[in-house]
Amino acid sequence: MSVSALFILDLKGKVLISRNYRGDVDMSAIDKFMTLMMDREDEESLSPIIIHGGVNYMYIKHNNLYIVTISKKNANVALVFTILHKIVEVFIEYFKEMEEESIRDNFVIIYELLDELIDFGYPQTTDSKILQEYITQEGQKLEIAPKPPPAITNAVSWRSDNIKYRKNEVFLDVIESVNLLVNVNGNVLRSEIVGSIKMRVFLSGMPELRLGLNDKVLFENTGRGKSKSVELEDVKFHQCVRLSRFENDRTISFIPPDGEFELMSYRLNTHVKPLIWIESVIERHSHSRVEYMIKAKSQFKRRSTANNVDVIIPVPSDADSPKFKTTVGFAKYMPEKNAVVWHIKSFPGGKEFLMRAHFNLPSVQAEEAEGRPPISVKFEIPYFTTSGIQVRYLKIIEKSGYQALPWVRYITQNGDYQVRVQ
């Protein structure tokens, strides 16, 4: 990676924090940054990298701040942006929000953190839980320097070795979001599943965990190709997972961080049958009133139930005098969003419900010019996955030999789930 220096600037380009890591670039180079940014404002898309006078500027914007690194070397750009986002993540853990005021209020601890996060231009300790063990906001009151936790010098930098729990438990959530776009004719234009496996770990010592999934590649390699399996794409793992083991034999083996973290994410670019099907009939009467008939149908198994379903129907901006009739749930007009929200608390599988809405349109407005935004749907279905992914086992091995309880649950929810209307 090798960055020469890091700066935190306000929106006018004033330097709030600067840290010179290598001493090979003139720190006054940052003075040109805002001028270079302003010169590029006419461009349609702004690259987060500027090269000028032999200096590489790489930056991200967060709230009212720019976080900028400069380098003369051919830096690993992907790693630079990863550490920039990690810095934001750590600062939010410490200060709840990262903005100009929190930077000014906490500049002493920020310099401490920057010295631990990056050393001589290379990323070091980036785990906020480990950092919080020895960089505290109260400041160190002892005269002698605090001893860094073993995790800093350990091969397992994301976990301390002195963790103890009276009850050893692991909670594992498989969460899938469904992205769907349906056109006015009812054809699915785009569908994909974006999944993640999130864990909450309350285990003593240094446990070794092994997770088994119904992974298609694994099943084919072990002669179980006909068993029900899932082909995972774009798999990304937390740093604790041993990638060489996964590449060799698809084993997900790891020593977990303590507490909550995302173990892995994946994507399936697959044809998804719409879980909640929406049909709409919209009748406009010479710009004096408009009537909506919305039919919602659940197309998943009867034993499953969708919770807190919201069907969000856009209406003209000048609509008023709303009247609603629903076979289940309730409808509410949200004038600030120019939409009707039909809320259904519990939507069992294989059911069909209706909602009717009537609005007056007082002004003769060219409604067609507004365009007709799509209907969007929000939902959550517990104990259910669209992809069919399954946790086959979660083994927990620790040298003291304690017994631990793994808890697994599945949740499917909406992602970008939209139905275009006529």
TrEMBL record:
Chief place where the protein resides: membrane
Which Gene Ontology BP terms does the record give? intracellular protein transport; vesicle-mediated transport
What are this entry's molecular-function GO terms?
A: clathrin adaptor activity
Q: Does the keyword Membrane apply?
A: yes
Q: Name all MHD domain ranges.
A: 167-420
Q: Which domain of life is it from?
A: Eukaryota
Give the bilayer topology.
Peripheral membrane protein
Spell out the protein name for this chain.
MHD domain-containing protein
